[in-house]
Amino acid sequence: MKHHRLYHDLAHLWPLFSPPEEYADEAEIYLEILRSKLGPSRHSILDLGVGGGHLLSHLTVEHDATAVDISEEMLALSRRLNPTVQHHLGDMRSIRLNTRFDAVLIHDAIDYMLTEDAIVQALTTARAHLQPGGLLLVAPDWFRETYPGKHTMHWHQDYGDITLDVAEHLPDLTHDSTIVQSIFVYTLRQGERITIEEDHHTTGLFPRDTWLRLIRDAGFEVELLEVPSSEYGYGGNLFVGVLA
Ligand SMILES: C[S@@+](CC[C@H](N)C(=O)[O-])C[C@H]1O[C@@H](n2cnc3c(N)ncnc32)[C@H](O)[C@@H]1O
């Protein structure tokens, strides 16, 4: 059983699965935070786990950016969408670019950190790429407290002759589990041709207080902002940290 196919052999589905324009409202919130915390000028942003660069594509209007992802296929998508951004293949837990930025963004890619140690490693990477006073933005999709338990999320994207249906099956949790193993089924219809693919994703799930503690221990003054969440209640969490 192959994992995370959406970021590898099925990466061509990503722009259909979650198109760039759906990130516009969220990006506006990020831009407002960047303006209010760092001032109105053009700043440098490092995006760790850039994926297709959909969120980032709205930020480069006002800022310069560098991006990292562990998947060559996702980097290829982001390169196409964000030609002005420098892209690097690497793991957010260990990459060192020997450059410092005004802000480090770890959007939903942070969900792929499965242990507290992995989160600490990603935060250490963020810290290593910031000056004191630098800004950290981290956006896990769920907290232990907000995870709704066993359910299936369905969505449908229509692009004329092409449609994509997604069903994501999420499990109940065992008492002390910090991981969620979900199964995606993608149904792609192109004209008369229908393709069905299965994909398995493993993501981390931690209490709010664990996040706050880990971000503080990494040297940041942190606040948790509630931003509008998606239809199914995921997303909507944004940690804003300032490196002390
Ligand atoms: C949901 S996608 C990100 C989508 C992105 N927010 C966008 O706007 O297009 C998650 C990404 O995290 C990347 N990822 C997972 N683990 C990673 C790691 N350890 N280091 C860097 N990237 C990682 C995956 O390859 C994938 O591209």
Query: What count of domains describes the coordinates?
Result: 2
How does the overall form come out from the CA principal axes? globular
Low-confidence stretches: none
Lateral strand order in the biggest sheet: 3-2-1-4-5-11-10
Overall average pLDDT: 96
CATH class of the largest domain: Alpha Beta
CATH architecture name of the largest domain: 3-Layer(aba) Sandwich
The number of distinct helices, counting runs of at least 4 residues, comes to 6
- The count of DSSP E runs of length 2 or more, i.e. the number of strands, is 11
Radius of gyration, CA atoms, in whole angstroms: 18 Å
What does this structure look like?
This protein has 244 residues and is α/β, with parallel strands linked by helices. The protein contains six helices and eleven strands. The chain has helices at residues 14-17, 24-38, 56-59, 72-81, 116-128, 208-217, and strands at residues 44-48, 64-69, 86-89, 101-106, 130-138, 151-159, 162-170, 179-190, 193-204, 220-226, 237-243. A seven-stranded mixed beta sheet has the order 3-2-1-4-5-11-10, sandwiched between helices. Strands 6-7-8-9 form a four-stranded antiparallel beta sheet, with no helix packed on it. Bound molecules: S-adenosylmethionine.
List keywords for this structure.
6 helices, 244 residues, S-adenosyl-L-methionine-dependent methyltransferases, binds S-adenosylmethionine, four-stranded antiparallel β-sheet, 23% helix, 2 domains, Rossmann fold, alpha/beta, globular
